[in-house]
Each structure stands twice: as structure tokens, then as C-alpha cells.
Amino acid sequence: MSVEALALVLHHSKASGTDKLILVGIANHAGDGGAWPTIATLARYGNVTDRTVQRSIERLVALGELTVQVNAGGFGNLQRWERPNRYEVHVACPATCDRTANHRERALPKAPAHLWTDPPTPTSPGVAHVTGVPTPTSPGGVTPTSPKPSLEPPMTTGSGSVTGPRASSGTTPACTECAAPNLDVCRARQAKLAEDDRHTYSPKPWSP
Known about the structure:
Layout: H1 3-12, H2 17-28, H3 39-46, H4 50-63, E1 66-69, E2 86-89, E3 155-156, E4 162-164, H5 183-191
Antiparallel strand pairs: 1-2, 3-4
């Protein structure tokens, strides 16, 4: 009789009804050399017919909880054909069992938090990430730059045509709002001031 085999079958076997009762009967005979109860003995345990025992054994084999070795049981003083079948019970404690005599269920231990990692984020294959567009350079390796605008406003003649950013001193009358000797100098000064600080150009009466 194997108390350990009985406890395993009672607590962890997936069989039910008559099938489990027959497996308990086989485990009751289990030892180091296996178990070899006769069909008649197992039928008496379950109060069933021999054919019912044989069907239960077939289902237990299909469930993976029992193996049968034909005419492999008994002792050496018997002829091969006289020997009973030998049974081996294959029921074990699951990972959630505390492995004690009571076979209590327990929660599985979790890995430490630092061992948990997030799965990598999938990226689309073949997509390049452009971080910046290089500035074209001249053949000599010098980066071209745009010219800075002139701070002096263009000059206009009396007819309204532009003659240039500056005219020679003395070609326009003096400004009445500041001490500029002519409007060319006045415009150059005003262009460097904030827009709110500028004044309107107003030439003094002038005659050639």
C-alpha cells in the first residue's frame, strides 16, 4: 500500500466517478515494483462489473494517468501467461501544490519587479528618420549666405524714381525735425531707430 500514491490520486487526479475510484484502487496496491491488482479485485472495490473496470482503465490510459504492462505483474514463480497486468500511476503535484501531506493550493511566486520589462515597440521596416536637411555648399566648401539688407532707405528724386540708397550731400534740403543737414542723413539716422521714435520727413523750404 502506498499512502503517497493514494494522496496524489485523491488530490490531483483529473479523473472522476468510477474512473477515479478504480485509480484509487490501483494506487492502494502501488509499491516500488508497481501495482498488479486483478480486474476482479478492482471490480469489487467499485461494485462494478469487470467490463466496467476495463473501460475505466482504457480511459485512464488515454488521460495519461495510468500505464498498463500486460502480464508483467506478479512474482517470478508464475508463468508469463499466469501473471496479472502491471499498472503504474502517473499523477504528480502541480506547480501550485505546497508539496505537504495536505497538498494545499498556493499562489505561484512572482519574479522581482526589476526583472519585468516592457516589450519593444515595433517600428515600420525601411522607414528612415530625417533629423535635418544639410545646407548646400559651394564647390569651394563655403556656405552661401543671403546678402544683408541695407539700413538706409532708397533715395527718390522729385519725380518719384529711385536713384540709390544715398545721394551725395547737399542734393536734398535739410530736415525740419532734426539737425540733419539734408534728408539723406536724416533717413540714415531714422532707419536705425525704432519705428515709434521716427519722425516724418519734412524738408525746409529750399531753393537752388
